[in-house]
Fold this sequence. Notes:
Blueprint: H1 10-22, H2 27-36, E1 38-45, E2 53-54, E3 59-60, E4 76-82, E5 97-102, E6 118-119, E7 126-131, E8 135-136, E9 149-158, H3 165-169, H4 173-185, E10 198-200, E11 215-222, E12 234-241, H5 242-246, E13 254-259
Antiparallel strand pairs: 1-9, 1-10, 2-4, 2-9, 3-8, 4-5, 5-7, 6-13, 11-12, 12-13
Amino acid sequence: MMGAVGVLADEDRAALERYLRAEGVDDDVRARIMSLAASGLSWSPSEAPGRCRLGGAGLLPPGTEWPCDRNGRPLSFLAAICLEELPAWSPLPHMGWLLFFAVLRSDRREELPVLEIAANEAGAPIRVLFSDTVEEADAPPGAVVLTRRAVELCSAPTVPDDYEAPERVGLEEEDYQELAAGLRYGSEGWSLGRGAHWTFGAWSDPAFGQPPPGSLLLLHLAHDDDLGLDLGGGTLEFRIDADDALHGDWIQVEVQPGFD
């Protein structure tokens, strides 16, 4: 797959083939799209959830202080990935937890706190923490607490939807983006309040362009009114180089804001 890291699981390959055939995509274009596709994991609400979750008071590595930015503002707990629950094709280690935090605004009159690429370091407006085990933690005063959402991470085929993707597969931009949107959002279509959150895959916020070679998407979060996740209608993407992820060098995570 060009520009990022990923595999297309057998069941997702079959589903994507059926979708493209049903949409009348010709053989050559279909082959190019299939070559760029990858399996992603959508964060779907679930009544029978695993240990991965969005929002809630918080999780921390045992004995770790709640992360704050350089101005002392507490970050908000965004999500937790239990690596043991990821599918066999996941390029991440299969033990431990990844915990995601960011400064969020509590009032829409405030400027969005994350407006440019941020590194995963002490005092930054975002943090990604790894731990073998986690413990429940109460968010300190001043942190925005998101509504806890039980989720399951559901495998699905994805295709690139950056601005350069139509040219790479040989379709008009409008036709390709209609295909990509149908695959990404299904019959319900896009919704600002519903939000779309996922891990891995070939999708990227169009503002980012084609992801750099070796880039691995750990988490894409979109503005989500139901969660209380106010990103001004935008997104946050947490990415890491695949080799750094394989070696557990999580300090190399970068976060980029964008729009959906």
